[in-house]
């Protein structure tokens, strides 16, 4: 039986924590009784610099019941960083870790299925919501647009998967080698690889408190996701440069013909030619410089170039 740790980032969640704690305790106890997980399994709340009583509550939970634990961050660092802090802090104590939100929007009954998939050999199990019926029209279309753009830019993300997932210890061991500061975890796990599986669930509405992802944060998050995983926008500049340079030759030809035909005022040909040629050359140069910056960008992230899953060798 494997030891399961559930990691939950919390930012100003005093309104929801009590119910979340109760529900998770029920779930964990059933899982332990049914011998699905080790009895040393835990639920760990990560306090992401909350301004309300969140941390006080977490401390209380810990004192009353040893099923619960807490991690306190020095200040608010955002959902992704809080999650990373939780995952990397518990990884050596747990065999498998499930990350989820504090508001129980992710159906906790999917945990059973995740553990089943884990037994079947998966190292990562992605929780995928089976519909977006409950979302507003705006959220639904923007989210779908986002996944489409990511796919177009060649980024491997799981459609409709947020941060509800099970990971094994060896996946988390690999995660620590991804040293980027602009964190977009749901892009990194597919990159890490290993055997993965999917579990579908119905995403509910937040039962109390407000969403900590207002539109501005959501857009920032999407932008981070795109720019941390793809240098294709830079290549776009390069391509535009090539096209403009090509057009400039046509324009030069055109303006020379106009001059020969006598359709121009003095100086027009010269100005039009320089404008197009210089514009094209500038765009192209920007693109070339961009290519190098893109390379520098991926080098500074220093991502591991490969991860070994198995190494079979007989020593004699
Ligand atoms: N969260 C966090 N730090 C932040 C913002 C959010 O730890 O700066 C946590 C929050 O407490 C919740 C999870 O991230 O457990 C997801 O946030 P929320 O439910 O507000 O997002 P939504 O479900 O609306 O996208
Ligand atoms: Mg939520």
Walkthrough of the structure:
- This protein is of the alpha/beta class.
- The chain is 51% helix and 13% strand.
- Strands 3-2-1-4-6-5-7 form a 7-stranded mixed sheet, with helices on both faces.
- Magnesium ion (MG) binds at residues 101, 103, 105, 206, 211.
What is the number of helical segments per DSSP (H or I, 4+ residues)?
10
Helix content: 40-55%
Distance between the termini: 33 Å
Bound molecules: uridine-5'-diphosphate, magnesium ion
Broad structural category: alpha/beta
- The residue-averaged pLDDT reads 90
Poorly predicted regions: none
Shape: elongated
Q: What is the tally of beta strands? A: 7
The SSE order reads: EHEHEHEHEHEHHEHHH
For the sheet with most strands, the description reads: 7 strands, mixed
Radius of gyration: 26 Å
Strand content: 5-15%
Spatial order of strands in the largest sheet: 3-2-1-4-6-5-7
Jot down its keywords.
316 residues; alpha/beta; 7-stranded mixed β-sheet; 10 helices; 13% strand; binds uridine-5'-diphosphate; binds magnesium ion
Short description:
The protein has 316 residues and is an alpha/beta fold. The protein is 51% helix and 13% strand.
């Amino acid at each position: 039986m494997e030891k399961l740790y559930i990691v939950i980032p919390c930012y100003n969640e005093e309104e929801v924590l009590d119910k979340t704690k109760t529900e998770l305790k029920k779930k964990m106890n059933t899982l332990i009784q049914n011998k699905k997980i080790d009895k040393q399994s835990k639920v760990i709340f990560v306090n992401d610099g909350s301004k309300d009583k969140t941390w006080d509550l977490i401390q209380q939970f810990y004192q009353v019941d040893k099923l619960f634990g807490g991690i306190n961050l020095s200040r608010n660092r955002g959902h992704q960083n809080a999650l990373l802090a939780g995952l990397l802090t518990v990884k050596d104590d747990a065999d498998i870790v499930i990350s989820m939100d504090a508001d129980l929007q992710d159906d906790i009954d999917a945990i059973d299925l995740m553990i089943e998939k884990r037994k079947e050999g998966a190292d990562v199990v992605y929780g995928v919501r089976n519909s977006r019926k409950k979302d507003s029209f705006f959220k639904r279309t923007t989210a779908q647009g986002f996944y489409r753009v990511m796919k177009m830019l060649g980024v491997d993300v799981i459609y409709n998967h947020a941060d509800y997932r099970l990971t094994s210890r060896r996946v988390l061991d690999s995660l620590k080698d991804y040293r980027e500061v602009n964190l977009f975890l749901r892009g990194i796990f597919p990159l890490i690889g290993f055997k993965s599986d999917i579990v579908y669930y119905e995403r509910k509405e937040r039962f109390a408190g407000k969403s900590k992802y207002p539109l501005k944060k959501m857009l920032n998050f999407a932008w981070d996701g795109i720019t941390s995983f793809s240098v294709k926008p830079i290549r776009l500049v390069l391509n535009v440069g090539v096209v403009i340079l090509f057009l400039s030759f046509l324009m030069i030809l055109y303006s020379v013909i106009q001059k020969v035909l006598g359709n121009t005022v003095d100086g027009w040909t010269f100005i039009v030619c320089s404008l197009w040629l210089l514009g094209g050359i500038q765009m192209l140069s920007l693109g070339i410089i961009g290519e190098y910056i893109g390379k520098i960008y991926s080098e500074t992230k220093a991502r591991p170039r490969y991860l070994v899953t198995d190494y079979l060798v007989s020593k004699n």
